[in-house]
Amino acid sequence: MNDWFEAEQRIERAQQLSESQRWAEALAELDAALAINPNNPAWNAQRGYLLEELDRPSDAVAAYERALDLEPGDRDVTLALGAALTRLGRLTRSLEIFDELARTYPDFEPAYCHRIAVYGELGQHDQAEQMFYLAQELDDACPHCFFHMAESLAIRGQAERAIYCWQRVLEIEPAYGGVNRRIAQAYRAAGERDLAREYFLRELREDPGNTDLLFDLGELAMESGDVDIAAAKFAQINELEPEHTEARFALGRIWLGLGKAADALTCFEDIRDLTDGDPGLPEFDRRVGEALFQVGRYEEAAERFEAAARFEPENVELFMLQGTCLLAGGKAGPAGDCFRRVLARDANNPFAHHNLGVCHFQEGRHEAGLQRCRDAIRLKPDFAAAMANAAVALLRLARWSEASAMLRQARRHDPDNELLTRLRKRLWRYRLRYMVRKLVSPFRRRT
To answer: Where on the phi/psi map is residue 170: left (φ > 0), alpha (ψ -120 to 50), or beta?
Structure first.
């Protein structure tokens, strides 16, 4: 008798601890009671609930199955088992359980409600909708049914119907978690930014410390061009959750876009420290490279672009950026290799032709560089920079008429370019110097 009394006391204690959400302690008390009486179906079922709260879904399934072995056909435990299997992704098995539950209890609305979610996850949306209408016949005010139906509709791209269902959820149960955010995301995807912001803020009022919501608002502000608001949201996230690397990366990209490369690098370096050098963020190496380029650290920037290109070997823009860094650092040969890699993938890229031409000029190969500039101009007839560099090459080759024609062509496309004006003046000085030397040279030979 003392053992049975102790078991009852432990169950009562477990209930009290559960009410305080002290799940691990409650489970310890419950397990102690089950050690005395392992064949109590209700206690095994309660164990399943506690294990779910402790995020141990596989163990929860085992507990529910044990409870049903002891008391087959219990409607609520069967429902809990099906729901736990759904959360584990064992959808076929959970569907079998809900089907059997509906056959046994045809008026049990949750058996239809849960199947809406399962069919939606399986991509069987017609069946999901059928279950929704069957559930409506039993209970037309179930918020979960409308939520699951909205999820199915959203997956199918039926945003308006999905929003209607989510709004019905809020009418039935205003505090239903996550619904305002779902509506906001749907409006955001549709380009309705003001409505999206309204619903994000509604959700944030219910959960003011939710960094995911703050991140959504920051991204929405970026899309709307409100850079200051976006930066404030990402900075707030960093205060609330210092290890939120996505927020630091977003803030770094803002500083980069504003030309504050040093501030951007601080964010990026913090991310590397937080992740032990492996951020796992798309475009991380590229953005670091751009920041390093802005502060004149060309060699390091080229290394970052090379690292990014390893994951995107067909991304010609990364090779262009790497080549530009090497060229700015005075490494014309390796830079030229990058631009050749671009042209191997995109032979009609005028910028790659032009930059390769500049590499040739730095190597003293003016004829080769000139030809590359001509190729660039052929592909992009308004390419004033290529025309300017071609004109410089022609000046050095003493081909005055061609240089003059090239400068006139460039000025038509970029009349306010001061470099072109300076080149035009240099052209006349070069021509005058050349003519003077030509006139003087015969007299020098006579003497």
So the answer is: alpha
Structural Rg of the chain based on CA atoms: 35
Structure tokens at 370: 């000139």
Q: 200-217 burial by CB neighbour count: b if 16+ within 10 A, else e?
A: bebbbebeeebbebbbbb
Tell me which residue of 136, 145, 169, 166 sits closest to 154, measured CA to CA: 166
Torsion angle (degrees, nearest 10) of CA 30, 31, 35, 36: -10
Amino acid found at 361: F
pTM for the full predicted model? 0.76
Does residue 303 contact residue 322 with C-beta atoms inside 8 Å? no
SS3 (DSSP) at 74: coil
Q: What pLDDT does 435 receive? A: 41
Give the tens place of pLDDT for each residue, 126-183.
999 999 999 999 999 999 999 999 999 999 999 999 999 999 999 999 999 999 999 9
- Burial degree of 35 (CB within 10 A; 0-12, 13-18, 19+): exposed
The residue type of 367 is: E
Phi, then psi, of 340 in degrees rounded to 5: -65, -35
The angle that helices 211-223 and 193-206 make with each other, rounded to 10 degrees, is 160
Q: Cα angle vertex 181, ends 79, 253, to 5°? A: 130
